[in-house]
Amino acid sequence: MKKLIAEFIGTFALVLFGCGAAVLAGAEIGQLGIALAFGLAIVAMAYGIGPISGCHVNPAVSFGVFLAGRMEMKDMLGYWVAQTFGAIAAAALLMFLLSNSAGGFAGNLGQNGWGPGYLGEYSMVAALVFEIVMTFLFVVVILGVTGPGGDAALAGLAIGLTLAVIHITGIQVTGVSVNPARSIGPALLAGGAAIGQLWLFIVAPLIGAALAGFAVKMKLIAAD
């Protein structure tokens, strides 16, 4: 139960800080600031809850850890539930804050997307490829730095900086998911196009994580 509570809190913090930076302060801090908010949220949570649950705060990460042989399926499924509800709770808080602002809630909770009218207006194929590749790289870093031979003391910093770089690179493409829970929370409450496009931000990160997990399981990129 402690692990599930930690994953709920960690995912709540990630979505609140990351998506919150985008919708509450995006105009002031720009995309670099948003990217750093996501990355630094992971750094903070890695050291805050990492000793309890490993700080996955991401169903794709848990899936990669499971496929790498470092987690039982029942534990992974529990993590998925806790992470998803954490993301929904954070999105609900953001909606409440925006609803009580002068501008009101205008439907933006930092949800992911693609196509006409969304940031750089990239195609679905571009969004799919981006999310698969970036999740693969993200999970490779996580499995590497937390595995045998990794530097546990610097793991949180390495993981957080990787997520920040991914956001710096790809906010214009999809808003960056690499995390199904991060996408589910805002999409469920924002509704509209975000719901119709949500499938990609569940499927693509899981594919990328699966590729990373199998690569580590098969010792293709694991330390000796």
UniProtKB/TrEMBL annotation:
GO CC terms: plasma membrane
Membrane-topology descriptor: Multi-pass membrane protein
Keywords on record: Cell membrane, Membrane, Transmembrane, Transmembrane helix, Transport
Organism superkingdom: Bacteria
Location(s), subcellular: Cell membrane
Lineage: Bacteria, Pseudomonadati, Pseudomonadota, Alphaproteobacteria, Maricaulales
Name this protein carries in UniProt: Aquaporin Z
Protein species of origin: Maricaulis salignorans
Transmembrane segments: 37-67, 79-102, 122-145, 152-174, 194-216
The keyword Transport is annotated on this UniProt entry: yes
Keyword Transmembrane listed: yes
